[in-house]
Amino acid sequence: AIEIDTSSASYSFAVRLADNGALETAIANARLLHSQATEGTLPGQYAAGSKTILEGAILSAAEVSEDVLATQAEVDAALQALNAAITAFHQSVIPGVIVDKTVLAGKLASAQNRYDKAEEGNKVGLYESGSRQALNDAIVAANGVYTLGSATQAQVNQAVTTLDEAVSVFAGKIVTLVPGATSVSIRD
Question: Which CATH number, 1.20.1270.90, 1.10.260.40, 1.10.569.10, 3.90.180.10, labels domain 102-171?
């Protein structure tokens, strides 16, 4: 048996003065956000230099988190500063272009209303056979652009123009006694 003299042995340990669990979680989340972010000029990217600022805030927070002598007030202040940096980072994202679809929405509602009320047949006031389907196809196509989250303003404007043309063609398909009329009056 070997005897070891432990009379001069020592063991040191540090007692953490503060709870840094929330700070550790925030640091991990900030690192993930930082690693997934891309700086650039396109919508959804972050402004140039924003990742460097966030990285500085992460390093400062990590320094406090690793300090076993940090007080609870210091940990809380580091957490607050990191959260503020994360908020600022989120605000530095380049916004997408806002596309105005209100005109298209109105045109869709009007065309759908016209479609719903129209009947096909060969009597005066009805629409030529097959004309409702052509209008419905135009409504479906325009609605596809309307519901497309990534639609550009040019696509929306084109959908409005195409739908207007389809409604105009549909109006010309009404059966009347007067060639080229787009509505029926009592005289018909």
Answer: 1.20.1270.90
